[in-house]
Amino acid sequence: MVYNCNIEKDGDMFLVDFPDMPNVLTFGDTQEHALEMAKEALEAILESEIAQGLPVRQPSYKGGHPVVVASHITLALRLRSLRGDRSQTEIAGKLGMSYQAYQRLENPRKANPTVKTLEKIARAYGRELSISL
What we know:
Helices cover 44% and strands 20% of the residues. The chain starts with a strand and ends in a 9-residue tail after the last helix. The protein is an alpha+beta fold. The model has no long low-confidence stretch (mean pLDDT 93). Helix 3 crosses helix 4 (99-105).
């Protein structure tokens, strides 16, 4: 998952904003530092919104500079999206796991699934797990 940000030089600082995430603003001393801070700020907001059960805006802005979201956050968002209107309890039952175990999968602060678990999830949704390195 990639969100794009804008970087604007303002005096000695480089200011960063995300059109798709208006609540994420940061800055850096250099453009490279600003991009590092952008990734950190974006991921912190995404983790917080996921943990609070808030809806997360999907990336659509294509200009500016790309910021790649960490895999554990992308996984949590993707699982939530795949689940749709179904409850976590319903999906947990379909996967043969406890509600609490499934709930951890949708929490980027707690999730650490094995590849076998990811394959099981993919099968439950009628999909293939594809890993590209």
